[in-house]
Amino acid sequence: ASGEEKRRLTILGSTGSIGTNTLDVIERLGGRTNFEIAALTGNGNISLLAEQARRLGAEFAVTADEERFRELKDALGGSGIAVAAGRSGLIEAAERDAGWVMAAIVGNAGLAPTLAAARRGADIALANKECLVSAGSLFLEAIRKGGGRLLPVDSEHNAIFQVLENEQRHAVERIILTASGGPFRTKSLEEMRHVTADIARAHPNWSMGLKISIDSASMFNKALEMVEARHLFGLRPDQIEVIVHPQSVIHSMVGYSDGSVLAQLGCPDMRTAIGYALSYPKRCALPIDRLDFAKLARLDFEAPDENRFPAIGLARRAMEAGGVQGAVLNGSKETALEAFIKGRIGFLAMAEIVEKVMDALADLPAAVTMDDVFAADEKARHTAAGLIK
Ligand code: NAD
Ligand code: MG
Q1: What mean pLDDT is reported for the chain?
Q2: Are 284 and 275 in contact (CB under 8 A)?
Q3: Domain 3-152 adopts which CATH fold?
Q4: Domain ranges of the chain
Q5: Which pLDDT tens digit goes with each residue over 189-232?
Q6: Among 50, 56, 153, 249, which lies 20 to 30 A Cα-Cα from 16?
Q7: What is the pLDDT of residue 4?
Q8: pTM of the predicted model, to two decimals?
Q9: Residue to substitute in 65, 108, 212, 276 for testing ligand 1 pocket (most ligand atoms within 8 angstroms of CB)
Q10: Residue 341's Cα: distance from chain center in Å?
């Protein structure tokens, strides 16, 4: 391909689990021959970020950590790759001209840079579900005004995106998000009370970053995905169902008004969703394991136990309340999760804290601007931190 035909991409969070999978897909689809990398961003893993930037010939590399600026600059010395750090560097990366941006920073830290890319009209491949959970309709409005596409990468939402025909949207009755149930699917509350972050992070099917792995164990990941789906597909809370499906083969389903249910299936490998978002509306060739149905033999399903996994009920509550309750849910969850990772609170305390923060902040007014979203997030973190101490 000649220079003009190359697609320009930016990967926010290139050093993480989604980020490295994204670079893997890009390289399998021709790498530097077919793509130009406008920017890559990371945080603490400077040597990996520098290695990625050199390998893909990125124009710009950013670490979120201001204190690592010098280190990144040294690591990229002589390469001609521009370097920056901190929040302003992340925004600059997002604003660089690239038609497709992978939003794969973890947590609410991804919101401002993803918004910056959305506002200038880039197609957003969205792994960072927190954008939709916290900012909901304001985030969608930024995408709409910018004029780019929103391409869901979260495997469940990508599955729904794959089977949701636009002409048939009026006939969607419900969507059914599948959940693996995580490592504690069959554990009692008593057993869960004493687990550590090391135990909680061991996911049975998916290999993911630390925080989302623990969120899968508590089912807060599914809770965030319920709110994410509600915004993404414009549905009422009662149209969003969750079913535990331990094999993670069905990635999610759409139920239509004629009784049909359409599903997307595959081996649990995020590169399918990433490749779909990169190739949309076409499909690309990827070396994902193929499903062998005879070997699988069976698929299991069970209702989620909301008593052992209160996160599901909290998501429903946040969806029904609307307003900034998504930001309250996510902000308090992130603070509780960090405290659990540090061993300061127990596993079950995470949901208890989120519930108390939602009680305390139930009357916050709906957000008019993004600043209101950031303020609600901050209040939720502050309130959660008070409960933890
Ligand atoms: P990860 O922890 O593996 O990687 C996170 C990335 O964000 C890294 O590049 C890291 O350097 C960067 N980062 C960390 N803190 C930052 C900060 N404060 N500011 C800027 N950048 C920072 O996470 P992940 O598992 O790749 O998840 C990324 C996002 O994708 C999350 O929102 C997660 O919920 C979502 N997601 C992940 C998966 C998965 O399979 N891993 C699946 C679905 C959705
Ligand atoms: Mg998911």
Answers
A1: 97
A2: yes
A3: Rossmann fold (3.40.50)
A4: 3-152, 157-267+288-322
A5: 999 999 999 999 998 888 889 999 999 999 999 999 999 999 99
A6: 249
A7: 62
A8: 0.97
A9: 212
A10: 19
